Amino acid sequence: MSARFSTRKREITQDAKIDKRSVSGANQRLERFLRPFAESPWDHKPLLITLARQMATSIGEEDGVLAFDPSGFEKDGKKSAGVSRQWLGRFGKVDNGQVGTFLAYVTRKEYALVNAKLFIPREWNDDPERCKRAKIPRDEYETHKTRHEHCLEMLDEQGDLLPHRWITGDDEHGFISPHLAAQTGFTEDDLAILWDALVNMFEHDHSAARGEMSTCKLVIFKHATALGNAPSQSLFRRVGVRKNDAAKPARNFEDYTITVDCENLPGGVEIIEKP
Length: 275
Prior knowledge:
The chain has 275 residues and is of the alpha+beta class. The protein has helices at 11-16, 25-34, 45-59, 122-125, 128-133, 138-141, 147-158, 178-184, 188-200, 232-236, and strands at residues 65-74, 84-88, 93-106, 111-118, 166-169, 218-223, 239-243, 256-260, 269-274. The strands form 3 sheets. Strands 1, 2, 3, 4 and 5 form a 5-stranded mixed sheet that branches. It starts with 10 loop residues before the first helix and ends with a strand. It is 30% helix and 23% strand. It is globular.
């Protein structure tokens, strides 16, 4: 690593062109380290564990926050690992690109990225040879993993190393997991605070970008069992939004009618509406 960050100019470039048989052992080790990630025998996971321990020491607080968030990257071509036409939230559209799920550790002192997983679309899982050519590790493509499962993996890898009281996520991850709640001591009182925060989240952030934005309705589907009593997509379809006058531009929330179908709910599912 000292050679990698040396003040000598262009030495790394020159060393990379030297035949392997003539370089020193130290340079050979450095070259192996600097190879493209997929071809290198170097395992990055111990480094992430070390990073988590360092962050716990330098900025850790007992009420820290673990924040999960997916992010998309535009990408041309079809050969890069995991590239596909998929939702790229950063750009607000479906396009060709890659998507990663990231874990950040946040406290009053500072924040830092501590982990990341590359999302592998199903079309890649169904084509093992394509995955091999892209140098995707077998345990990442043999079984399809959702971004939520990646979050759970990162929580297992580093959750015990980073002191925290809260786990947050992008709206894509807008689910209260009883399994995560059990690990963090999340209570019904905490849940009430979360609902209140969602209803009032814009009251103290009327920035120029948000203007007079406000939460006008919150629909909660509560399940009686930890594994859930109905698929989330079928429940979300019970919420409808209809424009009252299709010929006129909408100017207010009152220009829409929000409907929630509460008839014939699956057993064990309760609908809670706020405010």
